[in-house]
Amino acid sequence: MVSDSSSSLIALAQDAKAWPFAEARLLIDRLKKMKVADDYVAIFETGYGPSGLPHIGTFGEVVRTSMVRHAYEVLTGRPTRLICFSDDMDGLRKVPDNVPNKDMLAEHLGKALTQVPDPFGTHDSFGAHNNARLCAFLDSFGFEYEFYSATECYQSGQFDSALQRILEKYDSIINVVLPTLGEERKATYSPFLPVCQRTGQVLQVPITHTDPENGQIQYTDPDTGEIITTGIDKGKVKLQWKCDWAMRWFALGVDYEMSGKDLSESVKLSSKITNIMGATPPAGFSYELFLDQNGEKISKSRGNGLSVEEWLTYGTAESLSLFMYNQPKRAKRLYFDVVPKMVDEYYSHLSAYARQEAAAQIDNPVWHIHKAEVPATDIPVSFSLLLNLAGVCQAETAEVIWGYLGGYLAQYASDVTPDTHPELASLVDYAVTYYQDRVRPFKHYRQPTEDEIGHLKTLASKLAELPADAEAEDIQSAVFAVGKDAGYEPLRGWFSCLYQVLLGQDEGPRMGSFITLYGMDAMQQLIMQAVNGDLAGEAG
Question: With a threshold of 0.70, does the pTM exceed it?
């Protein structure tokens, strides 16, 4: 029996605008057309190519899929499963740049990744090593999933019946695939890649004969010229990946899988193959790829992206989840400056959540990030303010920041320390690290012009007239007033002056809040340092 609270939540979710609910409703429509039973368990899948280590795209795909999965569970009350599938039977095509023992790996090119020795010496194979890294990666974020290995699925016979269906529909599948290939590839293409029993290599060779009745195929050994007849069961073959993708959807009963925009044509082709096999392709959407700070496509080989490890050096896992949640169908720039913005945006959403009605809460990103178990966290100072404070103080340690925070935070609580507020302490640590690595090397204070010197002196005088405990809004008004009286139109030019001359950067915080945190006297001293030329030219 559904409780009143559950019924209320379901009713709200039906009208929710958040994209995970929209995706979940599409999946529900798909399953209705399939006329599945009421106790049907929906299967979600994400795929992973284990020739390299997990990366930020891996995280993005799993966290987004998990959000849709949770939305579906809320809407239906039905159980689900998430399969994280590793294509570890794929042949090793090239030696990665970031591994030891490259010469050893070069001797095993063409073999399935689970048949290639582990260059790190920690696992039975290179595939097993990278699979372990994947699982550790997913576990570190608390994802709920089931790990599937292609090698185990093929060799155990789990895929045998699906492979037999591919063999039976061989001609129909070939007719769908060939128009998408170039002339040279058409001449040799086959869905099946035999695994050579002599060398262990996954062979890219033409299939000269198919025998569905006996479950066999025939090909010519490229080295010996011998005609080989082999079965397709128990791991004796591997499928070409587009056909493999369709076979996997068929064999595992996948209901939902999203993928990058670069695979949109592959999704169409795999969907056609799934239809030929007699099944319904999964629901899902095509997410946009990431861009670097110059608007260029991120490439792992070029190294112009941002890794999960780099993000978590400067910001929280929740801020990374928020980045993935925001507008997944729009190309977004992924670079270091995004991290602080996402940290502050996350806490802004978190602060708003407590004040929202239930209907608005389920459209709040934090509801999806935390699967409706949203923590009650109050961070009294923004991350951007901490960053700017670290910059002005040239903070080498967190203790420097806490020295300024003590008086500022006294208005919120009598005793605010790293021990009493560990989440704030983490943000302080992030701020110091970000300043040292990403701000200090590029910091440059501009010498003020004669006119600007006069305006800065006026600002110092105005601040001196305010009471020591002036509110941030009163300070902000004073800053505005000085800029207006100085003739800045628009005022953006005045704030650019303050940021460049006083903070050594092109962008900065809301000055009223910053001065409240930094201290009125300290700000006046900083202004006089700038006026006297003591800041210009300094680097952090």
Answer: yes
